[in-house]
Amino acid sequence: MISQASALLKKHYGYDQFRPMQAEVIQCVIDKKDVVVLMPTGGGKSICFQIPALLLPGLCIVVSPLISLMKDQVDALNSNDIPAAYLNSSLSFKEEENIILQCLNGQIKLLYISPERMVQEMNRLLTRLPVRLFAIDEAHCISSWGHDFRPEYTQLKLLKENFPSIPVIALTATADKTTRRDIIKQLNLPNPEVFIASFNRPNLSLSVKSGIKPKERVKDIIEFIADRENEAGIIYCLSRQTTEKLRDALKAKGIKAGCYHAGLPSDERSKTQDDFINDKLQVVCATVAFGMGIDKSNVRWVIHFNLPKNIEGYYQEIGRAGRDGLNSDTILYYNIADLVMLTKFAQEGSLAKINLEKLRRMQQFAEADICRRKILLSYFGETPHENCGNCDVCENPRKHFDGTLLVQKALSAMMRMEEKVGTTMLIDVLRGSSKGELIEHGYNKIKTYGAGADLSFAAWEQYILQMLNLGLIEIAYDEGFTLKITESGKEVLYGKRQADLVQPQVKIAEPIERKAKRRKFAEQGDGNSLFEALRKLRKQIADKERLPAYIIFNDASLREMASEKPLTEEEMLAISGVGQLKFEKYGQEFLTVIHELCYGISAKLTKVNTVEETLILYKQNLSVDEIALKRNLSVTTIYSHIAQLYLKDDITSIENYVSLDEINSVKTALKAIGKIQKLKDVFDFLNAEINYFKIRLALAYIEKNGQFNIVDN
Predict the structure, then answer these.
(1) Does the chain have fewer CB atoms within 10 Å around its N or its C terminus?
(2) 0.70 cut: is pTM over it?
(3) pLDDT tier at 235 (50, 70, 90 boundaries)?
(4) Which domains does the chain have, with CATH numbers?
């Protein structure tokens, strides 16, 4: 069944391989198991239920919270020749009846519906439809512990009561351990398979700028955008008024900007969103109301004008940048005024205690002295041991020291108190306090009482904060905010590894001005002008078909086309994101632009064996340059043919084109990477020191000699 799934992946989506965990999730769904999936934004959650929907008979019902999100996903599916539809208030009665009829006739594979509508139609409609799978998107909305709780989602627990034999797949991009447990409980999933993908998004740079006044922030942002012409971005603000003022300031500088918040008329909000998706706006200044329905893959940067309320929301919002995998920037502005305002908001309502705690963790992230990516990942249960090298702290490192003994004191005290205390009590015990509550519990009698009396309360606070950020301890929100030791923490406690800490700073560090790091793409020659030409063609097709441009091809696919310069159907299909269906729709037009811009020739796609034609000329002792000139093809393409001919034994040696030292360098890259999906993986690993054509030849040599099992695309 997975082989069929792989074929569908290539046919409809243009990808040769599943991302980590996708195949396992799909297999579980096909086996009719309930599944909970946590994958970061842009990590490929949708494929986990869309592929099973194509494989299984009948219909997949997808619960989605926003009309815009439904429309976006249905448009993308239909563009990939996957029959999908949605039911929501934007449709007329006649349109709805027609969709229901199509579902009954097996003409629709995925039907998107809101949680409210799902509950309303539980008995009237769902019992009539051939439903074989329920997919709950944005599943964190069902948990009151989550960052975006929606009461209407709680009704979804009725699904398992009414349809116990139909599998449920719940998906979210942001949920800590407490929220994950609550999702399972709220959906009544008896024994689900849980898949947690890595939340690491290494293509996102992370930067925090503290203590900058609002007027200076605006100036800073305008300079930032000016350095990123035509690159789309989102600026998140706390207040509606700020979004409007910021939009006006950007427009005054000639930047195509709009604003989005809940106080605007719905038609105005829809227009702003559509204009942004269709590249008519470069920037949207928005409150957190904007974004969940955005599946725009080429957002190149996200800025937070103010401190977010919690890490889950922050992570989800920055995750809207770089969904196509290309390098993208994120900046967070932070000052005490934001913190005061957010604290006031957090103290209101029934969830005040947890909201305040989550705000405190967000504050800790903003004030951190260690790798920011480590903090984000540890919050979601991952414990990376290496610094990321792509955040402001890594680029401007703080003073570090071996804090193993200090950490062991704190962890030992926690263990002796059975992990039933919070931060304040832990510090009081370590410092040997004589407070009544401490004495009453007998904590003054444990071995580690007073073991940290040489450090101030403030210093211990910062060290414990670092332990949290490093993933050595975690907070159990649902157990009175007590501290728990993680598996990584136990490794330090029992001396299996060291704990690296930084010297504490009482004051927030001044902002470090750093020049915007420009993204570098592995392009050759006129690659950038070719990318712009392909981008222009994509926009023309998108406007004609009334689709967002990234649904035609995303930026990553266009960048790869500009780098690889495919000239044949075979080479175009090797580009990531180009499936057979999309090639049939758009491939010839993009090949024509590549042919004409790069080689000044008209493209005529033929089905003849182009590799055999190269072999005939090779046997006439023509050089690679001569063959390329005679055939009106690129030199890179001819080298690709030579690699294929060498693998087929039509050519006995390629050592005239690639040296043994270069082959050994590629071997080293393969050992580090494992299986590769495209040549760019090796090219980037080798820091662009070996050309693409030599990499291709080296891979052929390695494969032929049976030294590695490789995938050469």
Answers:
(1) N
(2) no
(3) very high
(4) 2-196 (3.40.50.300), 204-395 (3.40.50.300), 400-502 (1.10.10.10), 527-704 (1.10.150.80)
